[in-house]
Amino acid sequence: MSPEPADQRISIDGHEFTLKRLDKVLYPEAGTTKAEVLDYYARIAPVLLPQLADRPVTRIRWPDGTDSTPFFEKNVPSYAPSWVRTVTLPTPGSSRNRETLTFPLLRATADLIWMANLAALEFHVPQWTVGPRGAVRNPTRLVIDLDPGPPAGLAECAEAAHLIRDRLAEDGLTAIPVTSGSKGLQLYAPLDGSQPVEKVHGYAKRLAESLARSHPKLVVSNMTKTLRVGKVLLDWSQNNPAKTTICPYSLRGRARPWVAAPRTWEELDAAGLRQLDSAEVLRRVQAEGDLAAGLLEGDARVPV
Asked: Which fold is adopted by the domain 8-136?
């Protein structure tokens, strides 16, 4: 699917729908249009869709471009086509589970493009999945979000990531780094899905607190902003079942079309580490394959 201006009627995966306002600029600083955004998502779909599979998707939409105010969307729009699969789940914290949300489950390129056509630039997912009948399953990955407090940046995040990688390795877990497309990066570890979320969440908290005690000049585990100046927050709370994290390969709604991009450890070792944009990520996937494929093959458990 090549980028073209104006509206366009298309057929994907046997489903026909209209792409609207393809010439609208969604990233004003870069001049990136909706057509280019949709082209990215169509081409990245083979590696993005497995990361989204069976995970309720929260979207962040920028219908007027990334220099305007976005909005979060959890419920699937009432006008969504019937072929977009959904799952209805209790709202976290709702009284007696009476309140619910109906999320989309993006399974195919048509689902992804239909959502992106609504200017949904960011796709956020939990660490757990749902079964074929909508039952919530155990988490299949652990994540630590590394958020630098200025003047700390990606270099400090990379240094902290190595500490986390070594600690995870001691516990039999493999770390996969993803630069966030924003300020920092995430470290993921694939799991076998046999442990309840409380076990994974508790382990992530203990790991972050332990590293904060042993490396107090570099990292913190406390969310208080005044403690984060010049340090890297190890945000273990992303493993809370009510929280979501930007999905690997998703675009970000920043000044430019940066991507949550899987990286190699050699890149984290090198000087000049920076965020990657959509064109760079597409070239990397074509040349190097899916650097996040290991997230789909978890056989590890967190120690208890």
From this structure: DNA primase, PRIM domain (3.90.920)
